[in-house]
Amino acid sequence: MFNEMNWGKKNRMSEIIQHDGRALMLAIDHGYFMGPTRGMEDPAKALEPLLAYADSLMLSPGILGTSVPISFRGGKVLRASGGNSILDEDMSNEAVILSAEQAITLNASAVAISIYVGAEYQHQTLMNLAQAIEDASPYGLPVLGVTAVGKEMKEKAADKRFLALSCRIAAEFGADIVKTYYCDGFEEVVAKTPVPIVIAGGPRLDSYESILQMCHNALERGAIGVDMGRNIWQADHPAAIIQGVRGIVHDGLSVSEALDLVNGLATDATRRKEYFPAHPEDARVQEKH
Ligand code: R5P
After folding, report:
1. Residue 77 and residue 101: Cα distance in Å, rounded?
2. Is 161 within the bounds of a domain?
3. d(CA 68, CA 74)
4. Whose CA is nearest to atom 2 of ligand 1?
């Protein structure tokens, strides 16, 4: 951000934001604090039917190294902050877990750093972002700022004033892209954030229509795309819903057109296989994120 964008940085950004100015990022980094999250227990298997439809993956370095085919030509946004688990009461106690040099070695398109505004470790997480931006700058490596809410501030994910505060701080620090949640009044969050915004999906919604409607609303109100995880790979038909989301992000489909597409693709052949029974305690713990 602070360096004029050189060819390398523009090229990396273009692996995330496509020619049409839009981005379909598939977020599978949840394991960095949630472990083997339902639907992503075996990342290689879960990814296989989805890779063709994602412009880029947001993931941890260990999952890139073990579970993504070497032939994958999409963008790679590597999680670079962490250091806690879903069992912690306060999840904001994060540090930088991946250096810019390591990220470059892995051919990263960008690194992602979470900030926990208003949380106990707010300052530390903001300094993580500042440090990562400074370290990434000489390499022309973009930084994605993630506005995290953690467990205890979960209701903040629907608060436009909180989200605008967090997004703006990330942009002020020099994040190249910001990832946040969709909320009522989202256009205000976008207007107050002078860098591109992508939305997270959050916990699994109850219908394909709700997912598509959220994506459509976000784009209509100024998001450049999505960085979505559970609402795709925990869905009953992951390959169907990702194509519906793609239709909205890149092909200008309406919600009903995208829903027709998803319903047509939602067959036994595209149904997600449950390899392991869900443990009730896991579901309870994971709902908190
Ligand atoms: C945290 O788990 C990660 O940063 C995720 O990438 C983010 O929450 C987006 O995933 P989801 O759409 O499942 O909320």
Report:
1. 14
2. yes
3. 11
4. 30
Q: Does 29 have pLDDT greater than 90?
A: yes
285 against 239, higher pLDDT: 239
Task: Report residue 36 as tokens.
Answer: 């083997």
- Phi, psi (degrees; rounded to nearest 5) at 10: -60, -40
pTM of the predicted model as reported, rounded to 2 decimal places:
0.95
Nearest CA to ligand 1 atom 10: 229
Domain at 201, CATH number: 3.20.20.70
Ligand 1, pocket residues at CB < 6 Å: 27, 29-30, 58, 146, 200-202, 227-231
Tokens 């926990």 belong to which residue?
Answer: 116
Q: What is the pLDDT of residue 152?
A: 64
Residue 1 domain-assigned?
A: no
Find the domain containing 99 and state its range.
7-287
CA distance 91 to 84: 6
pLDDT tens profile 128-153: 999 999 999 999 999 999 999 866 66
Block residue for tokens 């896991």: 282
CA distance 277 to 259: 29
Which residues are 84's β-sheet partners?
none
For residue 81, list its beta bridge partners: 96
Mind listing the pLDDT tens digit for each residue in 43-93? Answer: 999 999 999 999 999 999 999 999 999 999 999 999 999 999 999 988 999
Nearest residue to 32 (alpha-carbon basis) of 129, 131, 98? 98
Q: What is the percent of the chain where pLDDT is above 70?
A: 94
> Residue 277 is which amino acid?
P
- Could you identify the atom of ligand 1 that is nearest to the CA of residue 227? 9
